[in-house]
């Protein structure tokens, strides 16, 4: 998964080599390992955030020895970032179009309430309640997109407004009532499926493969859903015309319009798709807590934007990648978890999170610079 | 009488109190090369933007092959086969050359993936993009996946021209296509324009380069202060005449609409 | 190296800051490592879920938690207990309550009732045509929010209709509910707006003492700081008690976060969960009414006592 | 106060009139009143948000008859928006440079804690404590600016990080302890000065002027501070070289750099200035709540950004105005207050705020469109 | 020997694997007009960006009047009197023409306000801006407070050229200054260049317009594939020679550095 808009460009540059009688070309045999690493990084800039992540992991394996560096703990981190990562994928789509969506969190909650309440409280079969929840998310996103394009308003204002609106609808529909795990298990266990845990080691062992390095890992289906969502959106962004239009619409909307792209249609598509992804996040959220908590998700907006920005996507649109967002979410997850395990006082944990975020992005930028 | 390929009457466009178009008329005959010349700020770019839906005129009428049209966006014009090189090029900086060339008309793969999952045929698009650029003599571009923002000024212009030349099916409009191009590359663009004409297309060429204009144009539309003040035949007038009319130093010839 | 956790609702609310300080002191005394965590806002269930998971990973012996969503957190607590951790719930009981090993709580509804009764008693006959303003926490009514609010109503003798939700009452004495987010500045704004609607207000219930302090500023600005309005609140932090002393706050229900946390830590450390009277279901760390003007039939303590017990 | 970057441009356009023998010019006598209004709006685009504000006022004078449309209530609204408006001024500076500052709220709180605690708890004379608080704000802003420019990180990430960091410092220094109004009145009444109320009518009456329309208005010195801050920053932005550089740096940073502007110095200046303004907001906050509450202002970031964006400033930098921000803050204040007085259920108030924000900006855009 | 006004040796600049500058040399003599010509993508713009600190070369040395310099930003070059018209113009779209002209060297009022409050002298700046533009024959611009983004392509270029011409004190570099200009306006720019030379300044002119180049240049630097391959004297070579060398059709003359 490399980032096409900025990444693949580096793939095979070569004025030097291709021009007959052109300027000196590089001798491949002559390059040292650092130079080689540099070229690899330059060629695959998406790998850079992984390096930052790695550095984070190494630091915490010293800061919280024993506890942090365990498959079980890594599994936890993965489970903890799943929701923000999925919302981050939705947010990435929006931010690529130079927009911002302050309503992702509340769309997720609203969708989870629709799924859960319709199924558990109103007794509608889950086969209907679940698609209804997905539809709710899609509809919310669609409304956002419609207002952004048809009224030509800044996405910040639009989603700030719909944040209030969807939030009110959420309070109204949910009556602020939590749906308990036990009740849900009874009427709609399917909604909890994403929380089901499985052990990859056992899974492969059953297939006759003894993959020792998988021992201790405990995943849930939510993580798989997250990977699937990310893969699909990665595909859409990089391999379809719609994806190209998303990048172009965010890069320079006027140019895109002049070049013949229906930017309005693209934007509506993006917002609706983002809403739908939020509804999938709702499903994962239900799985994670077993029930529905209508008060959750209030910081999800900022968290998802954070994951996107740490993942290297520009808030000005047109540049960025899904993989970056996943890694961005993981980086924050690793920091939070590592600090929690370190036993630092809560106050200084906050302090450290702030410092680490800045340091992480600094290292990222620095590697980018020396590799170009 | 021949029906003009693209025609406009009484186009007006005001920006605040700046009048960019002041009852401008326009006629493009089938299969002709029409040059549009005029001072800086005369309103040439605004004229073609109004013609292609990039700007909506305050009033005025437009006909495409005799049919009245009112484009609300450049997409509509493009869907009818009008291809334009805008003066600001309309390229997406972060996208690659190939992506830009096929922006808005990407080609899907013809196999199962293309039909089922709408997978793009990147290989094809890259090949075509490279070929079009080579035709324009832009050999220094080697990597078709380079983002457009890393190209030199002339290379960028080459991409925009190649795009219009490749896809124009009814009318091709070029707003100063050779401004940033080198000598050799400019020649290629002129050749391309002549080749488009051979294919039967009418072409609008806006240019400040009088030798170029007089070399290829069948007729010359002279724009001044927001309106067409004359249409001259390059064979019957010299370059100095054209410049004199354009700058107001000489009265426009009475009527010469051929 | 024994690890014990403490998870609060939010990080910066003084109530929880003091709770953490109390726990920290106790942890030092007991020689155990305290891991503290908090949600990002009141109602942040997910943050607390992650905090519990991290404590499991840290191999904690157990933890105390002030749950943000008393129903939704239950499965995660079950997971922790399955992993062998002792869980003591503080302040707000779980639903069902027995999902934890023990519950040390102040009954928030009870705390509300106390100030409600006090207000009613103080007003005497005038109580039946009182004009009451409620400065609540948030539109979505987190648990403490409705518990305290409805408690006050019950104490004051208002028919609460649904006891788990405010806003559905039809008692004419209720003038308005406004949102203060427990914030001093927003408390003032909320009171200002409320005053516009209810110029003849004479009772103001506030969710906590910062909101009360803000409300008092608004009252003062229109000259209603002359004792014509009864201002009541909940928490019993030192600034709040001092405000009772100064007469700006009529009464407040004091709760004991330090005590709760310290007791919980001790119990987990010792591995001895105290026996709890099954009739009550939780160990009440108490809520006491603090006022300078006691009312017959409403138990209260003096400001001086309150100042000795206050928490920051 | 017109917005120079986009506003003054319209001042005296006239290709038509000035070019000798040029295209037809307009007959002034011939223009109808609508046409005239259009031209005025086009010439002074800053007046447009005022119209939106007016529309809001008219609506609420029907929705909450009697209570809303009173000088006293307007005075309240003014007092309620003061803090957000001041933070909005700081935020405007930052957003004009295409940045964003998530730390304005916490800088304000930190500064208020420094002022209050130093004076009241540590007994430092207010003559020192107050400048110390201002300095704290300035320093925080300076740190933001330094990181943004020297490490070349996105402002979103930087201020997200420093938000955590300053927040931790706040908890640490304040010990989460409130300072009571009474205590402050005793040791540092100066810090409460901004909350002092005065009646403009009485004020002028004492000077012998009987300005009847001022009857019923109740202002506080905080509002005056707000107006002063806004006026100074308006002046800086529109009348000094620094102001031009701020616009240029946000408009197209590369072009600004090539044109010879030291964008780094400009940015550091902007962030430091914004920090300083946050500290002034802290002073007004102390005046408003009488004391210091270290948990106040948690939504101040989003509120200040909202005021800026509703005021018409672009999140992409380079376009916008201080006046817009003031009006933006007022618009939100009018909505909140008007809805509260309308007696709508809380839940539907939230809903209505969302709708109104979107509608307000729609009307703004619409007037802009027809007036151009 | 005369010390060159601006000199560079062995400038290198790689972007990934694209080599934009490949050991390029450069010499600008005092009070000469040096034209730089070359194909699109030859590296001309990169060369002058490297000379003015807009891009930092990977290696290479630069001397200004014999003194070694290493500009870390365009500001440093500008502070030493090197004024440049970049190919992308470097204008702030939302700022007015006057603001753009004086960007980074705004004039304060001379009275009390100016000294105390650093108030800008807008009247003066507007007057000067108008005057400079009029000198370039850009009469169609009437409102000096119009944002630059509302100008036509040529008008914008005029603003950038006027700025450089007005403030250059040691070296003036112009990257394709007439590309978007009309016939009349181009003439004015050429006249401006000659006037600057009369004032004793050396000028670098990058252009694809051979007639312009041969009209004003004292020497012609031919750039090809990232390096200088020849310096010719326009009096001793024809335009076709220059184009042939530039495109590689003719071998560069042995050595002709005068
Ligand atoms: N968006 C706009 N707002 C205000 N004025 C505008 C706008 N667009 C164009 N103009 C004005 O309209 C006039 C005509 O501009 P136009 O771009 O059509 O000129 P042109 O003939 O193409 O010039 P050039 O040869 O320099 O490209 C100019 O005076 C310009 O300032
Ligand atoms: N930022 C960049 N990243 C990658 N490649 C670049 C970058 N800037 C320039 N190049 C490449 O360097 C080469 C030289 O570009 P340059 O702009 O110097 O050409 P030029 O001679 O000015 O051309 P023109 O006459 O078209 O303006 C081009 O092949 C271009 O693609
Ligand atoms: Mg033009
Ligand atoms: Mg160039």
Automatic annotation (TrEMBL), chains A, D:
Keywords: Cell membrane, Membrane, Transmembrane, Transmembrane helix
Membrane topology: Multi-pass membrane protein
Predominant location: membrane
Keyword Transmembrane assigned: yes
InterPro entries from the UniProt entry: ABC_transp_permease (IPR001851)
Tagged with keyword Transmembrane: yes
Coiled coil regions, renumbered to chain: none
Protein name: ABC transporter permease
Gene source species: Kaistia terrae
Upper taxonomic lineage: Bacteria, Pseudomonadati, Pseudomonadota, Alphaproteobacteria, Hyphomicrobiales
Automatic annotation (TrEMBL), chains B, E:
Entries under Pfam families matching the protein: ABC_tran (PF00005)
UniProt entry tagged with the keyword ATP-binding: yes
Keywords noted in UniProt: ATP-binding, Nucleotide-binding
Source domain of life: Bacteria
A single GO molecular function term of this UniProt record: ATP binding
Domain ABC transporter positions: 6-250
Protein name: ATP-binding cassette domain-containing protein
């Amino acid at each position: 998964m490399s980032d096409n808009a900025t990444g693949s460009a580096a793939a095979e540059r070569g004025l030097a080599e291709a021009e007959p009688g052109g300027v000196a070309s590089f001798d491949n045999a002559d390059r040292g390992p650092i130079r080689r690493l540099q070229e690899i990084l330059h060629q695959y800039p998406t790998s850079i955030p992984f390096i930052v992540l790695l550095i984070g992991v190494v630091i915490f394996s010293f800061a919280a020895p024993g506890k942090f560096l365990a498959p079980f703990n890594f599994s936890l981190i993965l489970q903890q970032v799943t929701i923000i990562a999925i919302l981050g994928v939705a947010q990435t789509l929006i931010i690529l179009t130079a927009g911002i969506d302050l309503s992702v969190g509340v769309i997720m909650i609203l969708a989870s309430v629709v799924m859960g309440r319709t199924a558990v409280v109103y007794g509608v079969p889950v086969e209907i309640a679940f698609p209804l929840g997905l539809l709710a998310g899609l509809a919310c996103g669609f409304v956002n997109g419609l207002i952004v394009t048809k009224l030509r308003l800044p996405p910040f204002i639009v989603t700030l407004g719909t944040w209030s609106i969807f939030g009110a609808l959420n309070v109204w529909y949910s009556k602020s009532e939590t749906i308990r795990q036990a009740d849900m298990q009874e009427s709609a266990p399917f909604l909890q499926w994403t929380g089901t845990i499985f052990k990859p080691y056992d899974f492969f062992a059953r297939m006759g493969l003894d993959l020792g390095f998988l021992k201790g890992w405990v995943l849930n289906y939510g993580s798989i859903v997250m990977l699937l969502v990310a893969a699909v959106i990665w595909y859409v962004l990089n391999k379809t015309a719609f994806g190209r239009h998303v990048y172009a619409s965010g890069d320079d909307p006027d140019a895109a319009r002049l070049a013949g792209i229906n930017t309005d249609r693209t934007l509506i598509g993006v917002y609706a798709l983002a809403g739908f992804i939020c509804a999938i996040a709702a499903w994962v959220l239900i799985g994670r807590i077993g029930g529905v908590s209508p008060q959750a998700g209030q910081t999800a907006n900022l968290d998802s934007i954070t994951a996107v920005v740490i993942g290297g996507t520009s808030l000005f649109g047109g540049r960025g990648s899904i993989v970056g967002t996943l890694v961005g979410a993981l980086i924050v997850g690793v920091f939070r978890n590592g600090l929690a395990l370190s036993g630092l006082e809560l106050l200084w944990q906050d302090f450290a999170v702030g410092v680490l975020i800045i340091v992480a992005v600094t290292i990222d930028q620095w590697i980018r610079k020396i590799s170009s | 009488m021949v029906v003009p390929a693209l025609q406009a009457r009484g186009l007006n466009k005001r920006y605040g109190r700046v009048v960019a178009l002041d009852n401008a008329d326009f006629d493009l005959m089938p299969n002709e090369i029409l040059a549009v010349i005029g001072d800086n700020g005369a309103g040439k770019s605004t004229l073609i933007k109004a013609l292609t839906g990039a700007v909506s005129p305050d009033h005025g009428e437009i006909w495409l092959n005799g049919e009245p049209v009112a484009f609300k966006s450049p997409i509509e014009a493009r869907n009818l086969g009008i291809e334009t090189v805008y003066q600001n090029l309309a390229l997406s900086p972060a996208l690659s050359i190939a992506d830009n060339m096929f922006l808005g008309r990407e080609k899907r793969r013809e196999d199962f993936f293309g039909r089922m999952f709408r997978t793009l045929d990147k290989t094809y698009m890259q090949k075509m993009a490279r070929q079009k650029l080579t035709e324009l003599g832009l050999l220094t571009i080697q990597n078709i996946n380079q983002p457009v923002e890393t190209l030199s000024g002339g290379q960028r212009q080459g991409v925009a021209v190649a795009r219009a030349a490749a896809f124009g099916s009814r009318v091709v409009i070029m707003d100063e296509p050779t401004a940033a191009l080198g000598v050799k590359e400019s020649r290629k663009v002129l050749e391309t324009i002549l080749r488009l004409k051979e294919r039967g297309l009418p072409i609008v060429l806006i240019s400040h380069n009088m030798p170029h204009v007089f070399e290829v144009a069948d007729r010359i539309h002279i724009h001044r202060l927001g309106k067409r003040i004359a249409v001259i035949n390059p064979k019957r007038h010299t370059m100095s005449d054209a410049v004199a009319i354009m700058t107001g130093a000489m009265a426009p010839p009475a009527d010469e609409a051929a | 190296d024994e690890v014990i956790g403490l998870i609060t609702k939010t990080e910066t609310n003084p109530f929880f800051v003091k709770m953490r300080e109390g726990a920290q002191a106790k942890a030092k005394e007991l020689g155990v490592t305290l891991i503290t965590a908090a949600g990002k806002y009141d109602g942040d269930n997910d943050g607390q879920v992650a905090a519990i998971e991290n404590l499991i990973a840290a191999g904690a012996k157990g933890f105390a938690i002030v749950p943000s969503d008393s129903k939704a957190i239950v499965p995660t607590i079950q997971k922790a207990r399955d992993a062998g951790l002792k869980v003591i719930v503080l302040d707000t009981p779980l639903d069902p309550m027995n999902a934890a090993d023990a519950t040390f709580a102040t009954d928030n509804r009870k705390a509300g009732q106390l100030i409600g009764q006090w207000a009613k008693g103080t007003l005497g006959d005038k109580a039946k045509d009182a004009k009451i303003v409620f400065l609540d926490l948030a539109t979505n009514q987190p648990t403490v929010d409705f518990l305290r609010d409805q408690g006050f109503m019950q104490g004051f003798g208002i028919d609460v209709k649904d006891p788990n939700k405010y806003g559905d009452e039809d008692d004419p004495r209720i003038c308005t509910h406004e949102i203060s987010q427990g914030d001093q500045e927003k408390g003032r704004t909320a009171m200002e707006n409320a005053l516009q609607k209810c110029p003849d207000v004479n009772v103001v219930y506030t969710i906590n003492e910062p909101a009360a302090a803000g409300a008092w500023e608004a009252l003062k600005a229109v000259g209603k700081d002359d004792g014509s309005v009864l201002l009541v609140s909940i928490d019993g932090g030192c600034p709040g008690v001092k405000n009772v002393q100064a007469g700006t706050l009529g009464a407040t229900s004091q709760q004991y976060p330090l005590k709760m946390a310290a007791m919980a830590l001790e119990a987990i450390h010792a591995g001895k969960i105290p026996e709890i009277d099954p009739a009550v279901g939780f160990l009440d760390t108490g809520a006491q009414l603090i006022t300078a003007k006691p009312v017959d039939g409403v138990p209260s303590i003096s400001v001086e006592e309150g100042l000795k017990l206050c928490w920051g």
